């Protein structure tokens, strides 16, 4: 077995195990309570749950979706070994990768910087923003760590699943208007869609970089 086939097998195995032990992932999986002062290591994910707010559709089949995520703010305590430790106002310590922050448009994060994490119903990190970005709603990315992408551009889109490719991290759905739309997937969204049959109606949660953060069944 060559390296590429081994890598593919390991990914599919991990997704299968996760699906088997976390319940119905398309429904969001089980709720997780985090005790105070518990240290957690996370990667950005999105598993928001709930229906899109009425009257806020900005495109066919699309709606704003921010209200379904919980936000927690904290101060970066240290950056070492490629990991960032954040002391939150809730009294917990959250860790995420420097590479994960860069993917969210944040580079050069350092101790003392204040960061807002967007958490899903499973208490996992869905998105990362500098605190100022959440307050200002700035939509521009920044390579110097002083900005990042705005959470105000999150949205959801409903449609029927046409195709899903875990290896290519790609999903295509057809909206009620008959439009086919394709998106790149973040890791947690891949596990949510694993095993979902074509033709199933799904709601995709889209981040400000047009990537699928989360997927669930319509309410």
TrEMBL record:
Recorded superkingdom: Bacteria
Signal peptide interval: 1-20
Where do the segments described as Disordered lie? 28-76, 136-163
Write out the biased-composition intervals (Basic and acidic residues): 66-76, 143-155
Name the UniProt key words of this record, in alphabetical order.
Answer: Signal
Q: Per its record, how is this protein called by name? A: Secreted protein
Source organism (scientific name): Candidatus Manganitrophus noduliformans
Q: What is the lineage of its organism?
A: Bacteria, Pseudomonadati, Nitrospirota, Nitrospiria, Candidatus Troglogloeales
